[in-house]
Amino acid sequence: MTAIPLSRLLAVGRPDDAPVADGVTFARFRADVAGNAARLKGCRRGLLVAADGYWGAVGLLALLHAGAEVTIPPNAQPGTLAALSADGAIPVGGDLGDDLGGNLGPGGEGMAFAPLDPETPLTFFTSGSTGEPKRVVRTLGMLEAEALATEAVLGRLAGPTARVHATVPHQHVYGLNFRLLWPLVTGRPFASAMHELWETALAALDAGSVLVTSPAHLTRLAGIAPLPPSRRPALVLSAGAPLPEPAAREAAAVFGTPVTEIFGSTETGAIAHRRREAGDPSWRPLPGVVAGRTPDGRLRVGATHVEGRKHVGSDLVEMAEDGGFRVLGRADRIAKVEGKRVSLPEVEAQLRRSPLVADAVVLTLEQLCAVVVPSAEGAARLADIGAFRFGRLLRRELSAVQEPAGLPRRWRFVSRLPDGALGKRRHADIAALFEESALPEIVMPVIATHRPTAPDVRAVRPLADGVELDLFIPGDLAQLDGHFPGMPIVPGVAQIDWAVTFANTHLGLGIEAAQSLQVKFRRVTVPDTLVTLALRHAPARRRLTFEYRCGDETLSSGSIGVEGIAP
Description:
Protein name: AMP-binding protein
Structural class: alpha/beta
Strand order of the largest sheet: 8-9-10-11-12-13
Strand content: 25-35%
Pfam family, one: ApeI-like
Organism: Azospirillum argentinense
Number of helices: 13
Domain AMP-dependent synthetase/ligase: 115-282
Family: Belongs to the ATP-dependent AMP-binding enzyme family.
């Protein structure tokens, strides 16, 4: 199908029956954009927070055709959205069918779409080196050029009607371009839902499809059998961090095709690619991209889809003989944690905003680690609740503005930070605080070696036939080990155990073990989340029912036999 730039997609149009997503035709897509553009008319700035891919695409084009400025928040954490909404920006698409979809707004029928201005700005955020998220403005024309450059390289690998699946969200440049914009521009249908588990992702794939994924997922393929030819994708894309060689080999064996990696940044978009057929090949610039090296060794790129057409990044590189380049490391303090960019200065600055913290430094030692100097108030709290719970308290504060990857997992609390000559802080001195032997004298009582096995109870409310509890599930639960690295998920057996434990505590049931149980898992439950657990006892039926919810969404539910308890 002919590629159509996003700025002219609705003005030029495609056949009414052309597929867009999950059985949705282009005619329906056009109507949904028209109706919601009418609803959003007069909106000055919109925050695109739709989690569903289809409604994310509708929301993006509706905001653009309504004349609104579009901002893609760095995450959907409450604190982040509150800060970005302070000047009147409207979150769009928070829930399927609420802000977008469902009833179309008035005046959208038969709307005539004029081409959009390619210079229309879109605002993204990336991890900055100053302690604050860096605002990056890219134009619609830049995103179009990136999508066309992507098609020039990948179009020969993916058929014109290949369905695009993803395990990554569209709330960042990589996910937005490869999960939504590239399919829209080239006419390929895409899956609305993001696959959170390999079970659903692999079941959805068919021969010739495209999978947009990341190292956080591709490093968790151990034990999965190779796909049969009828389900092998034609193209597997990965970005966000270099894919380790063992994971690249395992992915090729499972999917029957080598992984194609994408290199880029929020500032530049995709600028290079490499196909992991063997070893560690160099990165090859996309069409229209010129790559070079600055005198201090950093990557310099020029491209039509780069702001100002030139950009000097923080990656140290060496130029390869084949015209590509090899990445040697980063020159700044942006760390890759679980495949996500985390600004260490940003996390430090957010910690210092807490009244409990006087100073802080963050580093990566396989995990994200933090060394904190408590304030007077923080020192008193530390002495009262201990280092273990104090670290969890700081994690909860950070969770309002940081995604799980940006939450430190190891903590040290000190009376002062170790400084070297001329006041310079050395990484080795900070890292030494995490050595288990001979901790320096400046270290206060450090984090306990035991780890929690149950969530924190934040509130308890009686029900007519049971009890309802608000639970915060911490990210350092012992049950999360191995389930799964890089993308922790609360095991179902832990949820059942908690239901029994809290039923015994709050309903006095005395259940020794969960027997004769039924359970249904509707959505995955992730750590660092506040959930509600409803427990109801039906004595006549000798059953305990439970339901875990996050907001209005049911995560899991089931029932447990209580045969040994008298009615």
